[in-house]
Amino acid sequence: MSTSALTLGHVFVLVLCLSAAEDFDWTNNQHGSFYYGTFPTGFSWGAGSSAYQTEGAWDKDGKGLSIWDVFAHKKGKIQQNQTGDTSGEGYYKVKDDVSLMKDLNLNHYRFSISWPRLIPTGIKSDHINERGIQYYDDLLDTLLENNITPIVTLYHWDLPQVLQEKYGGWQNISIINHFNDFANLCFEKFGNRVKYWITFNNPWSVAVEGYETGEHAPGLKLKGTGAYKAAHHIIKAHAKVWHSYDTQWRGKQKGLVGISLSGDWGSLWTSPTRKTSRRLRDMCSST
Ligand SMILES: *[C@@H]1O[C@H](CO)[C@@H](O)[C@H](O)[C@H]1NC(C)=O
Ligand SMILES: *[C@@H]1O[C@H](CO)[C@@H](O)[C@H](O)[C@H]1NC(C)=O
């Protein structure tokens, strides 16, 4: 993993957190400065989730299979052979879930959009699933009616299975355009209500655990080149989507596009500011 890639990633994380960073001394690394009462004014408190871990309805209303549907159905891949088939049934419980968020006094909620729920094969020109769009419309409207600001992740690991099976998923450079098409569809349909977009959640895990060690979907062990190729295409896909938003949507929708990195993405990277960067990432991931 090259350091220039890491630096690029940090720039995008910084963009996401810019408003919170303005009045906060990031060089102060005292643990106590992160306890309750010491966050900057305007810091966004909320909870986060991912589609696969909350929605359930894995094969309902025209949704395509994701690599996690297929992976979890293989015996022995997940503890106790559990799956996300029904999960928290978030697909059916929009009103209940938002009312629980109100009880928690949340004013931000981060969730992810399931790519195969909107585009079953992953390729936009094949087919768009209107019932998937309807679901996210309802979720967004219900959140906003309750004054909860949505923060939306475009890729929280649930790649359409067809893209993996037929074309190699993140190993294939063509995925950059497919992902960009999906992102633009999301901006078109939901961007009037979503002002905070995150392209990828923890891309380190996607690249390394998905394509190198095989612990995560799609479970490939492409030792040596797997993680590198996946990471390379993810970085390019992030950049492409960032520029798409910048040139086609930002003027009208006035939102931000960031990325959510885990500490592991930079684990080989050492510099005097490393601690601060890790903090930033942790804080961004927790919104
Ligand atoms: C998971 O599936 C495997 C293979 O069928 C089986 O041997 C194992 O006992 C299962 N584990 C549980 C907790 O059901
Ligand atoms: C990469 O994906 C494209 C379709 O997006 C496909 O035509 C091509 O054959 C794929 N290449 C490999 C090596 O799978």
TrEMBL record:
Q: Which controlled-vocabulary keywords does the entry list?
A: Signal
Pfam families to which the protein is assigned, alphabetical: Glyco_hydro_1 (PF00232)
In its UniProt record, which GO terms are filed under biological process? carbohydrate metabolic process
Question: Which InterPro entries does the protein's record reference?
Answer: GH, GH_1_N_CS, Glyco_hydro_1
User: May I ask which residue range the UniProt record assigns to the signal sequence?
Assistant: 1-21
- Listed GO MF terms: hydrolase activity, hydrolyzing O-glycosyl compounds
Q: Extract the SUPFAM superfamilies matched here.
A: (Trans)glycosidases
The family note in this entry says: Belongs to the glycosyl hydrolase 1 family.
Give the protein's recorded name. Answer: Lactase-like protein
Taxonomic placement: Eukaryota, Metazoa, Chordata, Craniata, Vertebrata
